[in-house]
Amino acid sequence: MTHSTPLGAHISARAAKLSGNTLTDLFVLARARGAIDMAVGTPGYPEISGDLVEEAADAMRAGHNQYELPAGHALLRQRITEMLTTPSDPDTEITVTAGATEALFVALLATLDPGDEVVLLTPGYEQFTAAAELVGAAPRFVPLYAPDWRYDPAELAAAFTPRTRAVVLNTPSNPTGKILGRDELTEIAALCERWNVTVISDEVYGNFVFDGRRHLSVTEIPGLAERSIVVGSLSKSHAVSGWRLGFLRAARDRTEVLRRVHELTTNGTAAPLQVAAGRAAEAGELRAVNREMERRRDLAQEIFSRAGMKFAPAEGGCFLFADISPLTGGRQDCTEFVRDLLDRAGVLLVPGAPFFADPERGRNYVRIAFNRSTETLREVERRILGD
Fold first, then answer.
1. pLDDT in tens, 152-192
2. What angle, rounded to 10 degrees, do the helices at 283-306 and 374-385 form?
């Protein structure tokens, strides 16, 4: 089957299936009205370090303005290993990418052939589905159930078939804020071993875990560690989303393949920004940021709970995933609710439906980003509650 634009140009079937960003129209409205954006995960907290900005300027003035090694600047790769929960070799197991988005695509391209199947949990980050389909894979969805967003073990097992080549995980999760526990990861490991499946684990929010929990990486789980590709990023932890600094962590043999794909996609990311990030926040500073992020989570949960929404407390990450049915009685879907709140209070949230394989399951949910300044959260409180 051929696909053409109105001008007759041929486009691929994979590209033709892609939908536009569901938030574009809302963002245009929000900007025009001076609304507070509680939708996207772009950090309002933490703020980028002034020293980090100066490091970037110094790196440019020092001449770091040409290509860096495709694998990434050596110091940055070393710093990344220091952020991880298990030991890793920066020379043979870490690859710096143009954000976590490129890292995800490289991992999928290196793992999946057209027609292969990939297991995805739903609700989940909508880009996972689009990325899997763009590389020609067939998603196999496993539903998660509120309020604590757990899967049914029988449904998980049923999703694996002889055609399954990968499972994509996200812990802490966007949008639910759930952290996958050791029991769940061990259960997934048994299925991956049985079917010889690679686990691609998006751990972008691993620096933000709350209530005394710790981030549990797939690299700590027997049966997953040796078959894992970890996707990470500095965008949220270091507040440099515009710098596009992500990374892949995998065993040496997988890394060799990942780097070949990476070289053919982007070849690398901005050299002076890698140099600057290599001199960035130490682990102690990241722990302090985590404590402050937990306080913002608590404040956001208080505000939106008082507004009448229901949700399981976010265990990690920077989002709340809230049930609005106590406010709407089912009379409004999530998109109508978001538009109404934007009109009434000048606050923008994200409709929950696009995070579900079956959008109807998400009609009563919205996503709320709480990685914002305390002043912004207090202004949201005033607008929504009149306090």
1. 999 999 999 999 999 999 999 999 999 999 999 999 999 99
2. 0
Query: Considering only CA atoms, which of 307, 376, 296 is closest in space to residue 344?
Result: 307
Closest to 322 measured CA to CA, from 153, 127, 123:
123
Q: Are strands 319-323 and 365-369 parallel, antiparallel or unpaired?
A: antiparallel
* pLDDT > 90? residue 237: no
Domain 11-47+284-385 has CATH 3.90.1150.10: yes
d(CA 328, CA 128): 29
Q: How far is CA 126 from the centre of its chain?
A: 10
- 4 in Cβ contact with 10 (< 8 Å): yes
Listed by start position, the domains of the chain span: 11-47+284-385, 62-278
Domains 11-47+284-385 and 62-278 are alike in CATH topology: no
Rounded Cα–Cα distance for residues 287 and 208 (Å): 9
Q: How many CB atoms neighbour CB 326 within 10 A?
A: 12
Instruction: For the domain made up of 62-278, give the CATH fold.
Output: Aspartate Aminotransferase; domain 2 (3.40.640)
Regarding pTM above 0.90, the answer is yes
| Separation CA 210–CA 293 (nearest Å) | 9
Quote the distance between the C-alpha of residue 78 and its chain's center: 23
Model confidence at 61, pLDDT cuts 50, 70, 90, reads very high
Distances (CA, A) of 312 to 149, 309, 346: 9, 10, 25
Give per-residue pLDDT as tens, 248-275. 999 999 999 999 999 999 999 999 999 9
Which of 244, 205, 231 is CA-nearest to residue 68? 244
